[in-house]
């Protein structure tokens, strides 16, 4: 609805003979540009106070992604690495990550090439670690590994269902910790590996170098509940610098989801009829008609109809590429919440497997 009314105004400028720019025009153009791309454009962490001349190439890249001038997807795999343990491998921060990604990828794809329960859990875990942060929590919480490292956080109610993947993260971390990796990075690399392990899933730019915290995220109430009202959820995400369109894009992760604890009588019921595929059916089936075996969360149903979200929801329902681009950009943001050394991270996107772009 919003996009339509804006383009009507936009068209007006060009088809009205003798139209002259007036003060509102720039604002309208600005908004149009944002409509085209995304609506979350705030900087995060150290990028908020670093002087432009102090930015590293990674700092500049991430600044571009966060402000909407650079995409969050990248399709240039280079999975060839020197032998693990060699001097050459030690000299390259991303090298060990190639071995880790190859190791965990096996858990994320079934023999039909679709993504598994471990994959959906890893995607959710990435979100739940990072989402323990808001603009009001300061330099605490966020993508710091605490969802695994602080037992109290793991036991919180919204994290029900994540115990198995948390245990698995500890095993993987134990196996690779002698290479100096952080739990926070393992969680986010696993989330991005899981996403691209789903057919049609985006290949999200992936950074490493986060610091770990054993302290549980500061307050409860930072994670969403499926029984929250849409306006509350919109504000909850805004406090994490995620605007409504960004929220709509992120919710598409429920394309690969299966609920177990909202309604135990429908244990394992998926949120669209193809939970092994990163497709846009979730957007369609949330609006309805909904197939019998599909469970639509109350929060998804209400957000899909919310005036700030409905139009973009319908757009995602018919535009896989649009959704993937928006999701990837927004998830890069999620993966950096509460990270205060963004300028010094390393881009290891190349170690991710190639995206599966077509599915029967
Ligand atoms: C309004 C925001 C959200 C709410 C209320 C919400 C709520 C839920 C709930 C209740 C479940 C089912 C848990 C269970 O019964 O096992 C779930 C699953 C899941 N969610 Fe969300 N979620 C939200 C946003 C997100 C976001 C932003 C992501 C990722 C970026 C995400 C990824 C997932 C995934 C992948 C699953 C499946 C987990 C599994 O099958 O193990 N969710 N979510
Ligand atoms: C891939 O990465 C290796 C280093 O791990 C490098 O030597 C090689 O040139 C790269 N290949 C391409 C095609 O960029
Ligand atoms: C959802 O899919 C059905 C069946 O293909 C189609 O008729 C309907 O228009 C779709 N809805 C949206 C919002 O794209």
TrEMBL record:
GO terms for molecular function: heme binding; metal ion binding; peroxidase activity. The keyword Protein biosynthesis does not apply. Residues 1-21 form the signal peptide. PROSITE patterns: PEROXIDASE_2 (PS00436), PEROXIDASE_4 (PS50873). Its EC number is 1.11.1.-. Residues 119-352 form the Plant heme peroxidase family profile domain. Ca(2+) 2 binds at residues 255, 272, 274, 279. Disulfide bonds join 94-348, 115-198. The active site is at 128 (proton acceptor). The record marks 124 as: Transition state stabilizer. It is an enzyme of class 1 (oxidoreductase). It comes from the Eukaryota. GO terms for biological process: cellular response to oxidative stress; hydrogen peroxide catabolic process; response to reactive oxygen species. Binds 2 calcium ions per subunit. Heme b binds at residue 254. Its cofactor is Ca(2+); heme b. Ca(2+) 1 binds at residues 129, 142, 144, 146. Keywords: Calcium, Disulfide bond, Glycoprotein, Heme, Iron, Metal-binding, Oxidoreductase, Peroxidase, Signal. PANTHER family: CATALASE-PEROXIDASE, THYLAKOID LUMENAL 29 KDA PROTEIN, CHLOROPLASTIC-RELATED. Belongs to the peroxidase family. Ligninase subfamily. This is Peroxidase. It comes from Rhypophila decipiens.
